[in-house]
Each structure stands twice: as structure tokens, then as C-alpha cells.
Specification:
The protein has helices at about 15-25, 40-55, 60-80, 85-100, 115-120, 125-145, 160-170, 175-185, 200-205, and strands spanning about 1-5, 30-35, 190-195, 210-215, 225-230, 235-240. It is of the alpha+beta class and about 240 residues long. The protein has a 6-stranded mixed β-sheet. The mean pLDDT is about 90. InterPro entries: Papain-like_cys_pep_sf (IPR038765), Peptidase_C65_otubain (IPR019400), Peptidase_C65_otubain_sub1 (IPR042468), Peptidase_C65_otubain_sub2 (IPR042467).
């Protein structure tokens, strides 16, 4: 975790991003966490932020209980979408174990800390397994409710199943609005995505526009703060 002011160090003093970074600071965005840049950045960022929010919650035990219930419920969604348990159970178990370690020590007697969480996501086997689960969950949401996403797939000229196979389930393929909306709905969390831009309109406004993707009302906790992602050439998770 670092101060959002460090973003200014990445650019020259006259770069258009600087005014927008100032706007973020003035509007209460103080810190960020830089995430590894690749095609899986979105899924990894959301997964990490979900755990980090629970880790720093006022009542972590209650939040862990709720998170595990939500994760357990995703099995039905994955099955309805046609995914076999053998495809997702191991990945789901890995992510659940990370969440549960917040309140239940692992085999080494250690409970979750920010350092252990960061180390886990830096381990390729763990990180890739978590990303796979989040990709399958995203695809399951689209495949289970195709009518909700067909209007957004017209430009791709693909059916929902084909879109999922090519742009969601495939590791390393970046996420776009469709995937963000589907994953936030499946998890029942709100994801807000902002974009640093260097075009004239953004510079004139000196502000960052955030688009909110709402979780499913049935599982969404209205009292929970959103996951906030800032996109430039990388994806950063803002600490709110």
C-alpha cells in the first residue's frame, strides 16, 4: 500500500494525469495498491481487494462467515452454467482457504496478515488458481443469464457461450465492461472503475469519472464499501 501521490512520480510535472491525481486526492482517495500488469489484472485485483476488505473489517469473523456463504452459493451458479465440479472445486477451495485464514489459523498456526496475503497472491500457483475461479464465475454468470448480456455482445458477433470461451474463460485475456458487470453481480459486490485519461475533455475537467457496477440485490450488502479500481496503463486498487 502506498500514497496515491506516488503516481505523480511516474510522470513529468506537466503530464495531464497530474491534475486528475490531484482531483482524486481532493476527493478522499488517499492510498492505492499497485497490481501486476497482465491480462488477468482485473480478476486478481478484485480477488485481492475482496480479501483485504474482510481483513480490515470491524468484524472480520462475521464478514468471513458471510463471504464463505457467498462462495458456497456460487457452486449452484457454476453448475447451472454447465461447469463440472472438477473444473472449479480446487480453485474455489484455495480462495476459500485464504478467506478463512483471516479467522482460522492454517496448518502452520498462522492467521492472515497483509504480508501473508500479498505473498499468497505473488505465488503463481495460488494467484492463477484464484484467477481461474473468478474467470469461471464470471463466465457462469453470463451463461446462466445470457439474455442480460446479449445486447452488449453485438459488436463481438458472438453468442454468450462463444464469448465466454474466447474472452472470459481464457487465461490472460483482459476484462471489459461485460466481464466487470458479470463478476460484480455474481459476487454481490459493487465495483467502481475509474480511468486516468490524457484527452482534452478529461484535462479540462481535471476529474476522474468512475463507473459503478452493482452486485446482485439478493446478495449485495448495501453497507459494504465498493471495490475501487483505477485504470491507467495498469490497474490499481484504491484504499477507501
Amino acid at each position: 500500500m502506498s500514497s496515491i501521490r506516488t503516481l505523480r512520480d511516474d510522470y513529468g510535472p506537466r503530464h495531464p494525469f497530474n491534475a486528475q491525481i490531484g482531483w482524486l486526492i481532493d476527493n478522499g482517495q488517499d492510498h492505492l495498491r499497485r497490481m501486476r500488469v497482465d491480462g488477468d489484472s482485473f480478476y486478481r485485483s478484485v480477488a485481492f481487494a475482496c480479501v483485504e476488505k474482510i481483513l480490515h473489517a470491524q468484524d472480520p469473523r462475521q464478514e468471513v462467515k458471510r463471504a464463505v456463504e457467498v462462495l458456497d452459493s456460487t457452486r449452484l451458479l457454476l453448475e447451472v452454467a454447465g461447469f463440472q465440479p472438477s473444473l472449479y472445486e480446487d480453485s474455489l477451495a484455495i480462495f476459500q482457504s485464504i478467506v478463512q485464514q483471516i479467522v482460522t489459523p492454517d496448518i502452520n498456526g498462522e492467521t492472515m496478515t497483509p504480508e501473508i496475503l500479498l505473498e499468497a497472491f505473488q505465488h503463481p500457483e495460488v494467484s492463477n488458481s484464484v484467477v481461474l475461479y473468478f474467470r469461471l464465475l464470471t463466465a457462469a454468470q453470463i451463461r446462466a443469464e445470457p439474455e442480460s448480456y446479449i445486447p452488449y455482445l453485438i459488436d463481438f458477433q458472438l453468442e454468450p457461450m462463444q464469448f465466454c470461451e474466447k474472452y472470459v474463460q481464457e487465461m490472460g485475456v483482459p476484462a471489459d465492461e461485460v466481464q466487470i458487470a458479470a463478476l460484480s453481480r455474481a459476487l454481490g459486490v459493487t465495483v467502481e472503475v475509474g480511468q486516468l485519461q490524457d484527452h482534452t475533455a478529461a484535462v479540462a475537467a481535471s476529474r476522474v469519472k468512475f463507473v459503478a457496477y452493482q452486485g446482485t440485490p439478493a446478495v449485495h450488502d448495501s453497507n459494504s464499501s465498493p471495490i475501487v479500481l483505477l485504470n491507467r496503463l495498469v490497474i490499481c486498487t484504491l484504499d477507501v
